[in-house]
Write a structure and sequence with these properties.
Elements lengths: L12 E4 L5 H12 L3 E6 L2 H4 L6 E4 L5 H14 L4 E6 L15 H22 L3 E10 L12 H21 L5 E7 L20 H13 L4 E4 L1 H11 L3 H29 L1
Parallel strand pairs: 1-2, 1-4, 2-3, 4-5, 5-6, 6-7
Helix pairs in contact: 1-6, 3-4, 4-5
């Protein structure tokens, strides 16, 4: 099943950052299969090579000079303008000790998930055609504060606000804006998580939900609905209740970590 075409005119073109793995890679594959001209951006040149037929752009989104240089390359290869830009690239690291807060880690995550997005907006937004769409990768983590997610959650909350503000300012230019808020999706990034990930989806499922949402022009694309709507419902409860739920989960995790540490000492 394929998502309906977002626009009726040809050629259809999409630029996707973070297209060398996970959701971005699957989106690139699916848009290629739908006949779109795909500009696949990523740092891993070898991973990008599997995208036969795509225009491959190998650069680091955290390097403003490298990002800016890509705009001229894209313009040279475009027959008109971009119909869709999906700023998908990002990273996730956790603050494991809030008392001894890791400022360097915080800076890395904010730089990758937010500052670099600003670089990409500067380079690629002027290339979007009237009637086109800009999509920013957020997260369902913005619906509730979670333990250890100070850096990741803060970056994605900022993306949520950024998308909402851009939607106002780009409307007179006839450019739509969507924010994408996935639940857990099996990717190399989430494979590093050391906690349960309920209702985890595949990249194929995520790609379909995103493409359908973009085709419909949704301002917010969140999935899977059972998971994201549950988070939204919990966020409406009194703060003390959902803070207690989070504290309970953190206590269980701590107990497991302590038990594992004791066991390791016995083995030694």
């Amino acid at each position: 099943m394929r998502a309906a075409n977002m626009l009726t005119h040809d050629p259809k073109s999409v630029l996707i950052t973070g297209a060398s793995s996970g959701i971005g890679l699957q989106l690139a594959k699916d848009y290629l299969a739908d006949g779109w001209q795909v500009f696949a951006c990523g740092r891993n040149q070898q991973a990008l090579s599997q995208l036969q037929g795509a225009e491959k752009l190998n650069f680091d989104i955290t390097n403003n000079h490298q990002v800016a240089a890509q705009a001229d390359i894209v313009k040279a290869k475009l027959s008109s303008s971009l119909d869709l830009v999906i700023l998908n690239a990002g990273s996730c690291e956790y603050i494991n000790d809030a008392v001894n807060f890791d400022g360097k880690l915080f800076e890395r995550v904010i730089r990758t998930n937010l500052i670099a997005m600003g670089y990409c907006l500067s380079a690629f937004t002027p290339l979007i055609d009237k009637g086109g769409r800009l999509a920013l990768m957020g997260s369902s983590a913005v619906y509730l504060p979670f333990p250890r997610a100070e850096a990741y959650g803060a970056s994605k909350a900022a993306v949520q606000y950024l998308a909402a503000s851009l939607a106002i300012d780009l409307k007179p230019h006839h450019i739509g804006v969507s924010v994408i808020c996935p639940g857990f999706v099996k990717t190399p990034l989430t494979d590093k998580n050391d906690f349960a990930m309920p209702m985890q989806q595949t990249p194929e499922q995520a790609s379909l939900a995103i493409r359908q949402g973009l085709a419909r022009g949704l301002r917010e694309i969140h999935f899977p609905k059972r998971f994201t709507l549950l988070l939204k419902f919990i966020s409406l409860l009194p703060r003390a209740i959902w803070e207690k739920l989070n504290t309970s989960n953190t206590s269980v995790d701590t107990e497991h970590e302590n038990a594992a540490t004791k066991q390791n000492k016995k083995v030694r």
